[in-house]
Design goal:
mainly alpha, Methane Monooxygenase Hydroxylase, Chain G, domain 1
Length: about 375
């Protein structure tokens, strides 16, 4: 008879045990915990200074463990990319708990020595020195912890594994030439939109398409700049932002005939920008607070119509500049990173199309 639930529990248990076995500090801490626990004196039997150190370590140690849980949970809540492995979180929590427990037992085991050392070196009140001692101990524990990143996986087939492989340290891996080229097309699509921006290219414009990435990297490529944000959004600036959000995925559609999965965040940005655009009265009638099914259906139709219009405008713009797009893609693939001065010769050749005029004039 097969027991799927028990098999699943066994697999997850194997994952956790495998993870601990690959963490030397966890093994050492667990061994010391077992060896020292029976002979360590009770905390009440320690000198006063050692008791303060122990109490401070408990307080700071709990915060250390809680902070790890909260920070990782924040990443999950942000839904930055992909899926996350709950067993990675559980293993990290278990490791920290084992290390903290071993540290507390060690303080009991060597309480007299700790007290003597603090007393001998004291130039300030013993309580302050005790807290410094606990902070140093916890800093040491934090430094020797394995550098395991929050485990985000990019692909659905990777998410199904949910094993220790998704919790390994972040090590960049080479990408296929086909994947790098698609990313370059996506980022080049975004870059071309800056050429029709009335304020010119923003300061610090930079594009990056790395040929190696780690499983924990949030982006396969990115375009950034240090220019000032728009102080007062206008119809043109919001519409340009909408087009900018969709430019990468539409460039993929123009070059490959279909879109990839690299526009999740872009599409979320577009939806927020489109909602703002319509709520400001710049497009069709839009119910900012739809209360009925008919109003929600109307909003859905308006958003779909606006997205279709944006996609059509972008495909016309990108097709008109296909030669520049292709050359820029080749340059990004070759150089991986391009700064504004390297980008300018390409973007200066971009030709505007009438449909984008309202966008360029308002930015």
């Amino acid at each position: 008879m097969r027991y799927p639930f028990l098999n699943t529990c066994a697999d997850y248990g194997k994952t956790v045990v495998t993870g601990l076995c690959r963490s030397p500090i966890s093994i050492v801490a667990a061994v010391l915990l077992v060896v020292w626990w029976p002979t360590a004196p009770h905390v009440d039997a320690l000198p006063a200074v050692a008791q303060v150190v122990h109490q401070a370590t408990v307080a700071f140690g709990v915060l250390w463990v809680v902070w790890a849980v909260v920070s990782q949970a924040t990443w999950v809540a942000s839904e930055a990319v992909g899926a996350s492995s709950p067993w990675g979180f559980a293993l990290d929590l278990l490791e920290r708990s084992v290390v903290l427990s071993a540290l507390l037992v060690a303080e009991c085991r060597f309480g007299n020595e700790i007290a003597q050392t603090i007393e001998a070196a004291r130039t300030h009140p013993s309580e302050a020195m005790a807290i410094v001692g606990s902070a140093v101990a916890l800093l040491f524990a934090s430094r020797v912890m394995p550098k395991r990143e929050v485990a985000f996986v990019r692909h659905a087939e990777s998410a199904s594994a949910m094993g220790y492989a998704t919790m390994l340290p972040s090590v960049p891996q080479p990408r296929s030439a086909k994947e790098v080229y698609r990313t370059a097309v996506h980022e080049a699509g975004h870059l071309l939109l800056y050429a029709v921006r009335s304020g010119g290219l923003p300061e610090g414009l930079r594009a990056s398409v790395p040929k190696s990435i780690a499983s924990t990297d949030l982006y396969r490529g990115h375009v950034t700049h240090s220019g000032a944000a728009v102080e007062v959004p206008t119809e043109g600036s919001i519409r340009w932002a909408m087009l900018m959000s969709l430019a990468g995925t539409e460039a993929e559609a123009v070059v490959f005939g279909e879109r990839g999965d690299g526009a999740v965040l872009d599409c979320r940005l577009w939806l927020g920008q489109a909602t703002q655009y319509l709520a400001c009265g710049f497009g069709e009638v839009f119910y900012d607070e739809a209360v009925s099914e008919s109003q929600r259906e109307h909003n859905r139709a308006v958003l779909n119509s606006l997205k279709k219009a944006c996609s059509s405008e972008l495909q016309g713009f990108l097709a008109a500049n296909r030669d520049v797009l292709d050359e820029l893609v080749d340059a990004l693939v070759e150089r991986e990173t391009m700064e504004i001065e390297a980008l300018r010769p390409f973007l200066d050749r971009v030709r505007a199309v009438p449909e984008l005029g309202v966008c360029a004039s308002g930015v």
